[in-house]
Design a protein that fits this description.
Blueprint (H helix, E strand, L loop, with lengths): L2 E10 L9 E9 L3 E5 L6 H8 L7 E6 L2 E2 L5 H7 E4 L12 H11 L4 H14 L15 H14 L4 E5 L7 H18 L2 E6 L10 E6 L2 E6 L1 H6 L1 H6 L6 H11 L11
Parallel strand pairs: 3-8, 3-9, 6-7, 7-8
Antiparallel strand pairs: 1-2, 1-4, 4-5, 9-10
This protein binds adenosine-5'-diphosphate (ADP).
The site of adenosine-5'-diphosphate has 10 residues, from helix 1.
InterPro entries: AAA+_ATPase, ABC_transporter-like_ATP-bd, ABC_transporter-like_CS, ABC_transpr_CbiO/EcfA_su, ECF_ABC_transporter_ATP-bd, EcfA_1, P-loop_NTPase
Pfam family, one: ABC_tran
Main location: membrane
């Protein structure tokens, strides 16, 4: 089994006089898998994301990215491998055109100019935005902005992309667009994907789900396993996603959803 990320008994607090916001959290992200982390606001999800690319460092435990421990000395190496897309795309734009913006992350990592030109094209094409190179990022729709943000991350050729509530500000169409885009990119480029969300509908297609509660891991498993733990979910005020409920009801009514095509 190859793990791309390993969290080993990680605890974190923002200040010494404040409570721990993560308590002995352990989990792995495998290469090529889509792991989704869900939980209420304040349960520690974003803190996990920031620890994964060295924006924060743990006070207890250790985090390995591709076998390398995240420390002050390794964060630049780590950030090349772990790209992050945040909730508000406007905060991520620095360039006046889409092209400049995609170039910016690569400049930070000191990529050669020729490679940058190539990567601007391939990464924008991967998210279906290749006709927008000269556009101003701020004038794009919410979904298009997030696709450009994903392209900027892809251009650095990471092995893991983290989407931290990256669809939260979008309408349902924009959400679908982003989830489809990232899924296609992930499958085409053999990336690991970590999505952080409080929207349960968004995780039903993930390979694995972790439910966080007050800084601890509450549940972990396939979406099917996690969402069958109705009582444990209800205990922390989470409901089962609509599609899972529908599937259970259809099955109870003798109309199970066909999971494999019939021969
Ligand atoms: P989530 O992403 O699940 O909403 P966070 O990881 O953002 O949760 O936050 C976990 C806890 O850490 C919360 O109690 C939050 O108030 C606290 N917290 C987050 N960022 C900071 C910060 N910069 N300084 C102090 N406390 C913080």
């Amino acid at each position: 089994m190859s793990y791309f990320i390993e969290f080993r008994d990680v605890s974190f607090r923002y200040r010494e006089d404040q409570p721990w916001v993560l308590k002995d959290v352990s989990f792995n992200v495998q290469s090529d898998e889509w792991l989704a982390i869900i939980g209420h606001n304040g349960s520690g999800k974003s803190t996990i994301a920031k620890l994964m690319n060295g924006l924060l460092l743990p006070q207890k435990g250790e985090i390995l990215v591709d076998g390398v421990q995240v420390t002050e000395d390794t964060i630049w190496e780590i950030r090349k491998k772990v790209g992050m897309v945040f909730q508000n795309p406007d905060n991520q734009f620095v360039g006046t055109t889409v092209k400049d913006d995609v170039a910016f992350g690569m400049e930070n990592h000191g990529l050669p100019r020729k490679l940058m030109v190539e990567r601007i094209q391939t990464s924008l094409a991967a998210v279906g935005m290749n006709d927008y190179e000269a556009h101003e990022p701020h004038r794009l729709s919410g979904g298009q902005k997030q696709r450009v943000a994903i392209a900027s991350v892809l251009a650095v050729a990471p092995q893991l992309i983290i989407l931290d509530e990256a669809t939260a500000m979008l309408d349902p169409k924009g959400r679908l667009e982003i989830m489809e885009t990232i899924r296609n990119v992930q499958e085409d480029q053999d990336l690991s994907l970590l999505t952080i969300t409080h929207d349960l509908q968004e995780v039903v297609k993930a390979d694995r789900v972790i439910v966080m509660n007050q800084g601890s891991k509450w549940l972990e498993g396939t979406p099917r396993d996690v969402f069958s733990e109705k009582d444990k979910l209800r205990n922390i005020g989470l409901d089962t996603p609509f599609v899972t409920k529908l599937a259970a009801e259809l099955s109870a009514a003798g109309l199970p959803i066909q999971r494999e095509p019939l021969n």
